[in-house]
Design goal:
Order of helices and strands: HHHHHHHHHHHHHEEHHHHHHHHH
Structural class: mainly alpha
Strand content: under 5%
Strand order of the largest sheet: 1-2
CATH architecture of the largest domain: Up-down Bundle
Distance between the termini: 50 Å
Radius of gyration: 27 Å
Largest sheet: 2 strands, antiparallel
Low-confidence stretches: 345-353, 495-508
Shape: globular
Length: 570
């Protein structure tokens, strides 16, 4: 590795660490500091091939993001995610391309559309960090996170199409583009599910958190590379794998989950710090590479494209949201007419191996989540660009058939748009969220209601398990020794009192093996209940993860006590 890259990474991590310590948005501070440092003569300015940067940074960042996304919330928000991740990217590509071609004809129309594909996809890293800190409602966070998972696939597909057009000089073929996109999605999903199934089976059969974590670090690169080689979308492959593994993560060993979380947090922190530092460092250099006669036309084009990018998003988001609500009303009215007219509309829909859908749950499936104008305002302004725009711009500059002036212009515009959106939108987004008061007390109340209800059902399931174990204890130890088991059971469900504990004969005590087996069985029963409640639609995935995290801590405490007890007796 080039020594300059090492120093950039160290500096970026140091600045990001200060940002986290002070509670500031780390990507923004890293970009600003790097931009200022780029003018200092002793600061290194490494150069990395765009394809290398994309292949090294994008797979782990996408996989980590997909692991954290609730699959159920993702599917429910799919209409909004699809409109933003596909529709908005296409619209932005076309509008930016036409404006760029009009202002700088030297780009040619394919080159201008290539520029549009490069600047089209937002990067939700900064927006998600700000949203989590300020407590954005889950419905907004899901849309932003879901959009960032699929818009890269759309933009990279368009990038490949227009790059090939620039290279070959062939005319643009609309149907060929549609076929390429469909092929990219289908192949990407299949490859991602194969890798996801492999990862899940490995995690189910292996309790070695080190092996699971190591394979987990390598798998996104493998899925991405294989999907790209087969003509699919590496982005879709990594996202599909991450969603599958994340959805089934509660079924695996708690040690894998506990090691996985800090591992990916550290990887994200390192990669994001470097990428945003690289963005800031490169901007002065790419501007300096322009010839004297190119500077002002390209700067003017950059400002125009930045303005277009800022305006197209809200002009798309609000009408698209209104159309989505209108379409929802039409679907519900049709469903009501079918039901009231005696058509065969079942009250429940059978799902193999899962709970049936009730009529209310089926209605929810047909209903698109409603976003208020405040929600849409935040989504409209959360359009910061990032690693994909940076990497594809650098890769496009290496296209031999592109005019040198056009290639320089393309890179400068992409960097200006990236830095401009990071600074303009990133710095003002927290203010916008506070002013609009985009919060949802009902969401917190519903979470509290679900948590209280499932805790009660979990407690009852645990008691039922202990009653079965009590019968087994009576058969093995005798009826006269049930008092010891009752005391042990009360310790598990935490309802014992000091007076009861001192009055009960605790002999024979459960052995260490018996204690661990019963305690872990009790936890396993409660985990299964949480999964069943999630699958039945009675419990949100976010609340389920919160409760399972608490159970993981309990199991860790059990294993820690078992491991240290012999030493303490010695």
């Amino acid at each position: 590795m080039d020594a300059s890259i090492f120093f950039v990474i160290v500096g970026a991590v140091a600045v990001a660490a200060v940002a986290r310590w002070r509670g500031w948005p780390a990507p923004l501070l890293v970009t600003v500091v790097a931009l200022a440092a780029a003018f200092l003569p002793f600061v290194p300015n490494p150069s990395i091939d765009g394809h290398v940067l994309l292949n090294l940074v994008l797979p782990p960042l996408l996989y980590s993001a997909a692991l954290d996304v609730s699959f159920i919330s993702f599917t429910r928000a799919m209409p909004q995610i699809r409109r933003l991740g596909i529709g908005l990217v296409v619209v932005t590509t076309v509008v930016v391309g036409l404006v760029a071609w009009w202002l700088l004809p030297e780009l040619t129309l394919p080159g201008a559309l290539l520029l549009g594909a490069i600047v089209a996809p937002p990067d939700a890293v900064s927006a998600a960090a700000i949203g989590r800190k300020l407590g954005l409602p889950r419905r907004v966070m899901t849309v932003l996170s879901g959009e960032s998972l699929i818009n890269d696939a759309t933009s990279l597909t368009l990038y490949r199409v227009f790059a090939a057009t620039v290279v070959t000089g062939a005319a643009f073929n609309f149907w060929s583009t549609i076929w390429q996109f469909l092929l990219a999605v289908i192949v990407g999903v299949l490859i991602g599910l194969v890798f996801g199934l492999f990862m899940h089976q490995l995690r189910m059969r292996s309790d070695d958190a080190v092996i699971n974590g190591t394979v987990g670090l390598l798998a996104p690169f493998g899925a991405y590379a294989i999907a790209e080689q087969l003509g699919g979308s590496g982005v879709i492959a990594v996202v599909a794998m991450g969603l599958y593994v994340g959805f089934n993560a509660p079924r695996t060993s708690y040690t894998t989950r506990q090691q996985e979380a800090p591992l990916w947090l550290s990887a994200d922190f390192l990669l994001e710090s470097f990428v945003f530092a690289y963005i800031g460092l490169q901007l002065p250099r790419v501007v300096a590479d322009l010839n004297d006669g190119e500077v002002w036309p390209v700067i003017g084009l950059s400002a125009a494209v930045l303005l277009v990018v800022l305006l197209v998003r809200p002009l798309f988001v609000f009408p698209a949201s209104a159309w989505g609500q209108w379409w929802t009303r039409m679907r519900l009215r049709k469903w009501e007419r079918m039901k009231n007219g005696g058509a065969a509309v079942p009250v429940t829909v059978e799902r193999r191996g899962r709970h049936p859908l009730t009529e209310e749950q089926l209605r929810q499936r047909l209903t698109e989540t409603k976003l208020s104008w405040r929600d849409n305002a935040v989504i409209s302004w959360a359009g910061m660009r990032g690693v994909v725009t940076l990497a594809t711009a650098l890769a496009a500059a290496d296209i031999a058939q592109m005019d040198a002036q056009a290639a320089h212009a393309l890179v400068v515009v992409a960097f200006v748009v990236t830095v401009g959106t990071l600074l303009l939108q990133g710095l003002t987004l927290p203010w916008l969220i506070r002013v609009l008061r985009v919060v949802d007390d009902r969401e917190e109340q519903e979470d509290a209601r679900q948590m209280a209800a499932v805790r009660e059902r979990s407690r009852e399931a645990g008691k039922a398990y202990l009653r079965d174990m009590r019968k087994q204890w009576a058969q093995e130890q005798g009826e006269d020794q049930l008092a010891a088991f009752d005391a042990f059971a009360k310790r598990l469900i935490r309802v014992e009192s000091d007076s009861e504990t001192t009055q009960i004969d605790l002999r024979p005590r459960p052995t260490q093996e018996q204690f661990m087996a019963m305690a872990k069985g009790w936890l396993a029963v409660r985990r299964r209940l949480l999964l069943d409640e999630r699958d039945a639609g009675n419990l949100s995935e976010e609340v389920m993860h919160e409760l399972i995290t608490a159970m993981d801590a309990e199991e860790l405490a059990l294993d820690t006590r078992a491991a240290t007890r012999p030493q303490s007796r010695a």
